[in-house]
Amino acid sequence: MLDRATKIESSATMLATQVSNTTLPAVRLQSGQEQEALAFLAERPIHTVIMAGFIRDNGLVGPLNRGDFYGYRDAQDRLKGVALIGHATLIEARVDAALAAFARVAQESPAAHMMMGEQEEIKQFWKYYAENSRRPGLMCRELLFEQRWPVEVCAPVEGLRLATKDDLKLVIPAHARMAFEETRINPLATDPMGFRMRCERRVERGRTWVWVDNDRLIFKADIVAETPEAAYLEGIYVNPEERCKGYGVRCISQLTRTLLERTTSVCLLVNEQNRRAQAMYKKAGYRLRACYDSIFSQR
User: Fold this and answer.
1) What's the pLDDT band for 112 if we cut at 50, 70, 90?
2) CATH 3.40.630.30 for domain 147-297
3) Whole-angstrom distance, CA of residue 218 vs CA of residue 216
């Protein structure tokens, strides 16, 4: 894994790069460039798993990405940044000039709603993005946790399984409540059809795991993205009436062991204020790797 000093070059180098590349724009990536983009993203797999997973699932071009992939190249035509710019804007930049170029594209994107990245990276990106006096809306600090082998073995959960379409009546409202608690936006009100379709698609792809008991959803987790190097979990839900019983730790531990049979690491983001969830992941063996910021733009 590249360290921060390698990822964002020294101030002097960044300044020189920025000056020399001020006229170089970010360019939309096209079908046929997948392998180059994936090789670039694989250098920091737990930080880029979402973008890499989207490319593997949907290609570089397609409506399911809910945005467009852009690349930034230096004067020697070397790829120095990849970004998904759209409803959720994700960035992987190795030079400051790439952040500036991606910010210019995002400024012109009517779909850009949420920007997420490592703390210092997104802070610099926002400086470029907000040049026209844009003000940030809701800001959210999240912590990136990762788990690799060995994984502590907990008591098995016999009922933990892949979700089926019959489970959607339980999965959709639970996922919507979680989204509202995190962003104060109710996806069932703003985009009901799209939200339901995305939940259904994850179930169809074998990306949603559930534990249902007597028609009650006890636990849920979504595999948003998966590559040979990493899997990214999201939408982790424990029924409020069943918390503090160890169910969450047992389910997370079991699911993590299952995923690590086919990938190198499993990672997830948790809100900085959610101490209970952090304690659960730590108890399951997850370790803190980085701090992320999400900024919801006010248009």
Assistant:
1) confident
2) yes
3) 6
